[in-house]
Amino acid sequence: MTELCYYEILQIEKSADKSTIKKAYRKMAMQYHPDKNPGNSEAEENFKAVNEAYQVLSDDEKRAIYDRYGKDGLEGHGQGGGFSRGGFDDLGSIFEEMFGGSFGGGSRQRQRKTYNYNLDTETNINLDFNEAIFGVKKEIKFKYKTACNSCKGTGAKGGKLSTCGTCNGQGQVHMRQGFMTFAQTCPHCEGTGQSVSEKCPDCSGLGYHEKEESFTVDVPEGVNNGNRIRVSGKGNIAPDGSRGDLYILINVKEDKHFVRNDDDIYLEVPIFFTQIALGDTIKVPSLKGEIEVKIPAGAKDKQQFIFKGEGVKSVNGYGKGKFIVQIKIIYPESLNSEQKELLEKLQQSFGIESKPHEDMFSGIFDTVKGWFK
Fold first, then answer.
1. Which CATH number fits domain 109-161+196-253: 3.50.50.60, 3.40.50.2000, 2.60.40.1740, 2.60.260.20?
2. What is the pLDDT of residues 47-87, one digit of tens each?
3. Do domains 1-106 and 258-330 have the same CATH topology?
4. Domain parsing of the chain, residue ranges
5. DSSP one-letter string for 171-218
6. How far apart are CA 164 and CA 213, in angstroms?
């Protein structure tokens, strides 16, 4: 269940209003609450997933981000494993219904879909470094599932399902540990109470046929490796004709010179040692042209020069990152006789200043000798 999208977890349409979302949450939270399913690890995981889905879909801002970018877009927006305030309020009434009423009777089976695949699907897209930064139009080719007409997506011949032989149609199996008996969802029918006895010959029991489609998508500027773009109505198709969403997973190629970290861009610039000694002003390439960098005399190796607002535009609309120039001091690998002579004269012109270690260690040699008398 945790692998489904939030709408499928709560078993609601993407157009559902807040009242519908809350109603679905209360129903499923009661169904999977650990106190009603002692020792059932699957129910516990489902309960966590239901709560996570409700936290996002009940919050207008989080829901809008999720609808556009999926779960990856929620990073940095307080999305975590805890309960929202609304979650506490709703759970309070759920506890009242659980412990103030009867536990008796009733079917514990899951609500069955008439097809055996998820409506949402995913595909990958490869972007060049600059395409991810500035945005681009890309043609997407992908495959999607459409329900087999012969079996109506069930995978069973003629669409006829039989009672699950593992759980006898109950949707649950029981395990005994010592004097305790625990119930868990039937692993064979996944809690539906029904199973395929004879596979559909038209789809070989899959319940669907695959088709290929292509379209052009607008990739917004600032997307990064691992981001996802949601395209509404381009997913798999259910037997009733309703269609899920397509999630496009972004893969971004690295650049030879620029290094990206979130919305910040790093550029390493080689600087000759004489430029460090004298100081210099240089021009370096940036994302949108060139930037002038003033290197002060005596700058350190790996010293950084930061230009705010010159990085990547945030895909979530939170301004731009930084452009960071990091210098790397380069020394000559060899010297000719003329260069050596010039450097020796330069060193001599500094006098004792050119050999700071001699002044620093002048008294230490005698001290060390005294240790061995």
1. 2.60.260.20
2. 888 888 898 999 888 888 888 777 777 765 545 444 443 44
3. no
4. 1-106, 109-161+196-253, 258-330, 343-370
5. SEEEEEETTEEEEEE-TTTTTSSEE-SSB-TTTTTSSEEEEEEEEEEE
6. 36
Taking CA atoms, 29 is separated from 24, 285, 358, in Å, by 8, 55, 76
Structure-token match 């010297």, residue found: 335
Render pLDDT for 104-128 as a digit per residue (tens, 0 to 9). Answer: 333 444 444 567 788 999 999 999 9
List CB contacts of 91: < 8 A, sequence separation 6 or more.
Answer: 29, 83
> Can you give the pLDDT at residue 114?
64
Distance (Å, rounded) from C-alpha 264 to C-alpha 287?
Answer: 11
3-state secondary structure of 116: coil
Please give the Cα distance from 334 to 338 (Å, whole number).
Answer: 12
Round to the nearest angstrom and report the end-to-end CA distance of the chain: 79
Give the span between the Cα atoms of 38 and 16, in whole angstroms.
Answer: 32
Q: Which fold has domain 258-330?
A: HSP40/DNAj peptide-binding domain (2.60.260)
User: What gap in Å lies between CA 8 and CA 176, rounded to an integer?
Assistant: 32
E-assigned strand segments in the chain: 121-127, 136-147, 162-163, 172-177, 180-185, 194-195, 208-219, 228-231, 246-252, 258-261, 264-272, 280-286, 289-295, 304-313, 320-330
| Residue 42, both tokens | 């699957």
Class of 1-106 in CATH: mainly alpha
Q: Return the structure tokens found at 331.
A: 């020394």
Tokens of 140: 């997407």
